[in-house]
């Protein structure tokens, strides 16, 4: 029997106040609350509750009238939230209890029946999955937009030559189109990982209740169907406790932001005065408060910088999970901020790149100058010798000597005379000069993964068909 004299107002407010004789410490209330950050799942919480209520009516736990008043009142609560009229209360801990207590305040008795056969443990697991599923859709759409932007610029600069680097030293001639398509490929794999992750996100935990399941004959398939889940979970202990799907999303996000960070690094280098390969649009850059000449590539720098927090969030979630015994522990409330932070920063980064990429201008004159410096066609010369019967290792040695000679004379390879070449190898003839030209070098890479403009154009076409399919 509860004794009203020993109950404090604060514990009376709580849906779980019954067994408590003391009100919650004011700071503990604040410390344990999640409503400041989990309220962003309000739509999913309401959607889940409405599906649960309809199912309770289907199995006769609620009357049709009770179900109707719950569903209608939840729609109204959603409106109150969206119009900024909803008073979120920290003493009600989280989004779930805030909405439920508003429901009870609005409709009384039927509202109190909604939580039948359910716990906040399976409720929160469901909400996160629904929320993440929606965000995955947004992220994938932005990734597709970014891929389209890359295809546009790859096509525009399909014929533009640039130096390809290894060790950031000039290596061979490539095309800008080819370089852009490398970015495209990275994103294609990221989208594959995201699609794969979505399969494991889109599983419904409801029916698990707190941890053991529930005696009510819930029609889980009916709820899953209403909520668009692909399948239902098989083990209640697992379903309420594991956050591996969020970890998997953060792994996808880490690989993606690693890719974006590599792209950023290239853009920052290319925009520098040392390279001058590209001009970034002014509206994506900022200036300096002291140095009037500055135009800083803030967007790529910031995206590169965000990789730190995205990797960190993955570590947070892994560490959060690693020592948890079955089933739900309050630790899991800590899953949301790293997950939400990851979603927000990934969405922002991909969005800003999708917006910016079409406006990057490549400086074709500087690229041509750069590709003609640094002996980018040396390997082509070795391949030329191989075609004349010289073994590759010997050809490598011969070309090494030619490069040495060019360095000593302060020349590029096409500037050495035929006589000089023939003094190094009698296999070199007049036709060598076409091989030493950068354009011919790029065009010769006709292999299906290669840099020749015609190949790259075919890759762009195939890619376009694939992403629009
Ligand atoms: N706010 C909690 C969370 O985010 C909801 C689940 C709470 N369950 C519990 N038994 N205290 O995880």
Write the layout of secondary structure elements.
Elements: H1 9-13, H2 26-32, H3 35-38, H4 42-58, H5 64-82, H6 95-107, H7 109-113, H8 120-156, E1 161-166, E2 169-175, H9 176-201, E3 203-204, H10 220-227, E4 231-232, H11 236-241, H12 244-271, E5 278-279, H13 298-322, H14 336-356, E6 361-362, H15 364-371, H16 378-387, H17 392-409, H18 418-424, H19 432-435, H20 438-444, H21 453-468
Parallel strand pairs: 3-4
Antiparallel strand pairs: 1-2, 5-6
The structure holds arginine.
Question: Could you explain the architecture of this structure?
Answer:
This protein is mainly α. The protein is 62% helix and 4% strand. The protein has helices at 9-13, 26-32, 35-38, 42-58, 64-82, 95-107, 109-113, 120-156, 176-201, 220-227, 236-241, 244-271, 298-322, 336-356, 364-371, 378-387, 392-409, 418-424, 432-435, 438-444, 453-468, and strands at residues 161-166, 169-175, 203-204, 231-232, 278-279, 361-362. The strands form 3 sheets. Strands 1-2 form a two-stranded antiparallel ribbon. Strand 3, helix 10 (220-227) and strand 4 form a beta-alpha-beta unit. Helix 5 (64-82) crosses helix 6 (95-107) and helix 8 packs parallel to helix 14 (336-356). The protein is elongated, with a radius of gyration of 31 Å. The protein binds arginine. Arginine binds at residues 34, 38, 94, 120-121, 124, 328, 330, 332-333.
